[in-house]
């Protein structure tokens, strides 16, 4: 089966990821929103190793990744957009918006389905919130997410370039909106009309459950407003809110080894959504 050569795409995505990570780390060090409760060296190794393990798992298990699937869909005529006859600018725009909607739905499901929540709580168990939290996902959740995106691409039939752009945007905005970065209030209000800002997403990492179940968007901020999951600010303010989950407060229990088995050994707490 002929698939798209994505060697250059991998390099492009890696370069964009590394560049954004470095920029966000520098900005949040210069303009922090909150004081750190734990040093970076205590959290960063586990956060970054998990995304590397997840990427290796995806490449080792999935027969096709989203970019390859987009190329195959184009060759075979699969997907809605390959039969719409729309101008390229509309096809690209619809592709990015539709794929972002899929990620929003996926995120809601990880809070609603007990098994998925057990995987996702690894992300929420971080005691601080910074740019590396944006890639702190259990490797199995990374694999499932890649599988969902691949299926969505096969059904939608977006252009290869649009899928590459979406993957770059998704990674970049996740690093941005998890950053411990203080934006001027006017800038935050303007940016969150389109994109999820750090202040908007920080609410989602509150230890208060009704705040955890809000602001699910990763890239576009529209979905939370549209589906009634938007919360403007945390009840205790950004400076006084508690980050994380109430059942995981001991940093000694959040080492890399323990995070990898947390979905099996950890207490899911009063989550997920459907318990309320």
Q: Alpha-carbon distance between the termini?
A: 47 Å
Low-confidence stretches: none
- Note the total helix count: 12
Radius of gyration: 18 Å
Order of helices and strands: HHHHHHHHHHHH
- Spatial shape: globular
Largest sheet: none
- Beta-strand percentage range: under 5%
| Overall number of structural domains | 1
Which structural class do you get from the secondary structure elements? mainly alpha
> What is the mean predicted local confidence, pLDDT?
93
Question: What's the number of extended β-strand segments?
Answer: 0
The portion of residues assigned to helices is 55-70%
A few lines on this structure:
The chain has 276 residues and is an all-alpha fold. It has twelve helices and no strands.
Model description:
- Helix 2 (40-61) crosses helix 6 (139-156) and helix 4 (88-112) runs antiparallel to helix 6 (139-156).
- The chain has 12 helices and no strands.
- The protein has one domain (8-275).
- It is mainly alpha-helical.
List the helices and strands and how they pair.
Elements lengths: L6 H24 L9 H22 L4 H11 L11 H25 L1 H11 L14 H18 L3 H18 L7 H7 L6 H5 L6 H4 L9 H5 L29 H10 L11
Keywords: Membrane, Transmembrane, Transmembrane helix
GO molecular function, one term: iron ion binding
Protein name: Sterol desaturase/sphingolipid hydroxylase, fatty acid hydroxylase superfamily
Based on the model shown, name its key terms:
single chain, mainly alpha, 0% strand, globular
